[in-house]
Specification:
Layout lengths: L1 E4 L5 E4 L4 E5 L3 E5 L5 E2 L2 E2 L5 E5 L4 E10 L2 E6 L6 E5 L2 H20 L1
Amino acid sequence: MSVEVTSTGYIRLALSECILAYKGRRYWVIEIPEGCVFEGFSKQVADLLVWDCSYGTIIGGANRLSDKKYRCFASFGQGCTCGDATSYRDVASTVAKCVGIYIKHCFT
């Protein structure tokens, strides 16, 4: 994995084995294939990971419940469940909202 810092300060990835499932401006959703390890996370932990390009780290992920449904979680604290999503974009949004709520309650 290689990292690039853009002129706006975002930290972008060059993925080799993992699959970029959704590429938003700030949040990317990365699909973890069997046998791939990304930032210490494998398929046994999550089917999808959410990368925050602003901070350059994984902020959460999701596990596939069915063909088009995912259970999202934050990658810190108690690993709390954030809610369900029905698309890759939804996964990014749901995890980001969960992280925002966690930070607000813990640090304000």
